[in-house]
Amino acid sequence: MDPVSHVVHASTSIPRLRAGFTMIELLAVIIVVAVLAAFALPNLNNNAGAAREASVKEDVSSGVQAALAYYIKSGNTFVGIDTTTAKANWSASPGNHVVYTNPAVDSVEVKASNATANRRCLRTLRMAGQNGALICSTGTY
To answer: Is the pTM of this model over 0.90?
Structure first.
């Protein structure tokens, strides 16, 4: 027998311990995380926009209630209503802005907006008939 053919090399007889992750494993994890993020982020943005729109609608409803209280206290008129006089017992949600426009004896418009979400809602309040429909949109009035 050839003495050289029976030599066992240290590199083949002792298993090497793996330290860390391979580049392929790291890339696979990064790709999986990126795919999950691609699906999750649009849903988060939509939920945030829906929440802001809901807060704007709520502020319009609160503004209408404040306008009704003002109407009763001021002798059945909306003339002179503004955000200071109408909002004595409540305030708009953070980031929202509520205004009263076109005040008349028997009607007023209540507008609420959120600039961050670019959402605006309007309700016309008429005492001599039906209240106007709540109109919400994106953009300006």
So the answer is: no
